Amino acid sequence: MKKEKVVYRFNRYVGKTLHVKKEISFEIRLGSRLLLDELCFNLNQAQLEKQLNAALENGDAAMFRQISEAYKQYVWEGTQQ
């Protein structure tokens, strides 16, 4: 992901042009990253749930086992020690 920057130029009457760059604050970048991560997590979890339900309805045990292995990552709640 590219950094988004705002560039300001201050021209002096004498001397070289001064270039100043302002980056997006850490808090905004962190908050937006966390929001995107949560949205992706919820979308992936919902898609896996649909696939699991479809596998159950079709009686496809092999597909159910395969999808349930991937789904375990979404329901793990720190029960492992």
Q: What does this protein look like?
A:
The protein contains 2 helices and 2 strands, in the order ββαα. The chain has helices at residues 26-58, 61-75; strands at 5-10, 18-23. The chain has one domain. Strand 1 (5-10) and strand 2 (18-23) form a beta hairpin. Helix 1 runs antiparallel to helix 2 (61-75). The radius of gyration is 24 Å and the shape is rod-shaped. The model has no long low-confidence stretch (mean pLDDT 82). A two-stranded antiparallel ribbon has the order 1-2. With 81 residues, it is an alpha+beta fold. It starts with a strand and ends in a 6-residue tail after the last helix. Residues 35-71 form the IDEAL domain. It holds the Pfam family IDEAL.
Q: What's this model, at a glance?
A:
The chain has helices at residues 26-58, 61-75, and strands at residues 5-10, 18-23.
Distance between the termini: 35 Å
- Helix-residue proportion: 55-70%
Mean pLDDT: 82
Number of helices: 2
List segments where confidence is low: pLDDT < 50 over at least 5 consecutive residues. none
Task: Find the count of extended strands (DSSP E, 2+ residues).
Answer: 2
Largest β-sheet summary: 2 strands, antiparallel
Percentage of β-strand residues = 5-15%
